[in-house]
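User: Can you write out an input/output pair for a complex, sequences first and structure second?

Assistant: Here is one pair. Inputs:
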Amino acid sequence: MSFSLFILAQTVNVTWYLLPLAMIISLVYSASRFELPDRILRRATWLFLQIIGFMGIVFALLWILSYKM
Amino acid sequence: MPIAPVAERQKPWEARNVYVALILAVLVPGLGHLYQGRIVKGLIYLFGILGLFLWGVKLGEGVVVYNLPEKGLTRKITLHYAAQFGAGLVSYPALLQKQRTTKNNNTIRQLDRPLSTTFTGSLIESHGDAEAGKLDGIITLKPESGEYGPETKGIFTGKLDGQPVKLELGGNFFLDRPIAAGFRRTLKIGVLGGVENGRILIGSIPRPFFDGYGVPPDPDQLQEVTGRLGKQHELALVFTWIAGLLNILAIWDCVQGPAYGFGDETWQTPNPDENIEKTKLDPPIPVTNVTTPA
């Protein structure tokens, strides 16, 4: 039990890296599309939410499919 | 607010020398933009791309940036390194470090000069791999002439499982190659005298940055690092790959401007007087009646 919790903690830690990674990708990608800072920030925020939302949906789907496995 | 015609707008990426900006952008993410005066974008690229790359290097304990083509293949640059290469100057050492590893780069069994540095590792039983405790402190070693020839002896001062300890060292000395992947260098030496007599110190000392950065790892070392760090090492690689690929977008933006940035900005209203003068100089083009074919 404790071992599986340890494994889960490790996995969770790695998953959290997704947030800053998605943030950087959103910012850099949006900066390469637009020139004005406020437009860059708005588009980056939207892209970040899209990425996280998509990943969240995939995560939820996999979690449901693997329920009680 | 009225939008000025495209031709009248000052394009910030054309304000300074484009070739200089290109070179700067290729070498350091964001530097080309800073040169052009596009400060916000420059900082986004600098901290975003370079930060992501260096974060990856940190996560992978330095065993991340390398070019290790498989023997027998004609391809001299691996896809792994090609992705990192886009990040610029931070990836270039990998092109040179492989050559440095082939010259006078052997493991050391006998020191030829004194060494004093920090040490982190474990105290191991002489028979078997049982760990007697964690060590953290300063190790001081020097070459000495022993009964059977030159020996490496020294002292470890620090903490064993949090308790202060001082150990006399000698025998079974091993020090990893000076130039190898990663920022830690494996060191092994026996303990002489005292309660810990016969046990062995196994751990690592710091390796200078330029001797560890960009060096291709041995298969054994790569296996050890990937086994120990697991997903963290994979993530470290992904970070550097993404950083390298993102910089291609940044370079493109530096030279050609944003993909569809123009058209969404608001521009200052031109001075009415200037408009009058301009109208006098450039009379409007008369619109001719165009008849559409029936």
